[in-house]
């Protein structure tokens, strides 16, 4: 099945993924394992446990979760792409993904995802401000360093000129 046909509808996209059309994409195993363990710890805490239990996850379970996640991402993306096409746009936005979640009956994920998206944007804004401040400080220190360097060069030039003026007088005194 050609890739363009696979994105025409969510069901075709999922079929293409199952048939091996998306074998090139692989979710990082370490990340998947970390997510699975965190989910199990949250479940343990919700079930009355302390939430700090160290769960062991089999390689096959990690692979199965990875494949399920990959299928979910493809299906969600294809549904968001449909929403985008209906609006006659080519770029999928966060709102398209949120709408796709509701269309796929995952409405309970919309609010947590909105909160995570806002936190991500706020974090990036803070990082951007820090980068700008750091850049300004660097420019200020470079300017100050340039001023100090110029003053240092002038001082060195003056020191070099003074011994030259004294040296001929001393040399003249020795010759007489």
TrEMBL record:
<keyword id="KW-0539">Nucleus</keyword>
<dbReference type="InterPro" id="IPR009072">
    <property type="entry name" value="Histone-fold"/>
</dbReference>
<dbReference type="GO" id="GO:0008622">
    <property type="term" value="C:epsilon DNA polymerase complex"/>
</dbReference>
<dbReference type="InterPro" id="IPR003958">
    <property type="entry name" value="CBFA_NFYB_domain"/>
</dbReference>
<feature type="domain" description="Transcription factor CBF/NF-Y/archaeal histone">
    <location>
        <begin position="27"/>
        <end position="101"/>
    </location>
</feature>
<protein>
    <recommendedName>
        <fullName>Transcription factor CBF/NF-Y/archaeal histone domain-containing protein</fullName>
    </recommendedName>
</protein>
<dbReference type="GO" id="GO:0046982">
    <property type="term" value="F:protein heterodimerization activity"/>
</dbReference>
<dbReference type="GO" id="GO:0006974">
    <property type="term" value="P:DNA damage response"/>
</dbReference>
<dbReference type="GO" id="GO:0031490">
    <property type="term" value="F:chromatin DNA binding"/>
</dbReference>
<dbReference type="Pfam" id="PF00808">
    <property type="entry name" value="CBFD_NFYB_HMF"/>
</dbReference>
<dbReference type="GO" id="GO:0008623">
    <property type="term" value="C:CHRAC"/>
</dbReference>
<feature type="compositionally biased region" description="Low complexity">
    <location>
        <begin position="149"/>
        <end position="176"/>
    </location>
</feature>
<dbReference type="InterPro" id="IPR051377">
    <property type="entry name" value="DNA_Pol-Epsilon_Subunit"/>
</dbReference>
<dbReference type="GO" id="GO:0031507">
    <property type="term" value="P:heterochromatin formation"/>
</dbReference>
<feature type="compositionally biased region" description="Basic and acidic residues">
    <location>
        <begin position="124"/>
        <end position="135"/>
    </location>
</feature>
<dbReference type="GO" id="GO:0006272">
    <property type="term" value="P:leading strand elongation"/>
</dbReference>
<feature type="region of interest" description="Disordered">
    <location>
        <begin position="124"/>
        <end position="176"/>
    </location>
</feature>
